[in-house]
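Continuing the batch. This is chain 6 of the set; chains 1 through 5 are on the previous pages. Same settings as before, nothing changed between runs. Recording input and output for traceability.
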Amino acid sequence: MPLKIFLSKEKGFCFGVERAVKIVTKIKDRANTFGQIIHNPQLVQKLEKQGKKVVNNLNEVTEKILIIRAHGASDKFIQKAKKRCLKIIDLTCPYVKKAQVLSANLEKNGYRVIIIGKRNHPEIVSIAENLNSPIIVENLPQTKKLGFYNKAGIISQTTFNIQEVDKITAEIKKHAEELKIYKTICDATQKRQKAAYELAKKVDTMIIVGGKNSSNTKRLFEICTKIVTSHHIETKNELKENWFKNKKKVGVTSGASTPKIILNEVVKTLRKMR
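Output for chain 6:
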């Protein structure tokens, strides 16, 4: 009996990623990208074959064009790049740009900025490098160790787990006399997480498709695996027949940086199983 495949209502490229990919694929000249343009290894490899080589710092730049990834870069980094007479093409996601602006305004107005997110994630780095003394918390235990602040403001990584943000925010409220909260998790992230959660409750197994280094894809996996057996894969080649033994209903979703063609290949492969 074939597996019944159920696709999440919210999947595939988000607005920021779609915009970045659309623009970068139209650039015909050779260029460098500051970090991976999006967190999808297959797309990054494709772009490199087209002359868009990834660099991690200005010393590695070899081309006259420098593309800023969807995760953004700090103002300090961009100014240094401009001083080298590089042509900057800024593909920062508008939601990330908003978080950068809000955090800078908080600090300017005397608030201690507390950023909820993964310390080494490029989006968080791009925000933190614009500030003098940001505090980054990744989880609830870290939050409980915070001191007490007269004025504090909260910014969240745009792709963080919504439920975790709510728990951490509730704890931060105990550590500040005055607190400003900016909910900077993007709309696409919220919809994807909610849709994945609802689908996971209705199936026997969940397949989450996306880069292993994709933060938003990891969040989807974390949410689903708490409900049902779940597997995070990058391509169809990682699917295993034994995952679906005695299973009837399989749910499929994908991260915001997963190309549609990769998701379609996974679904096509699943439909051939059993």
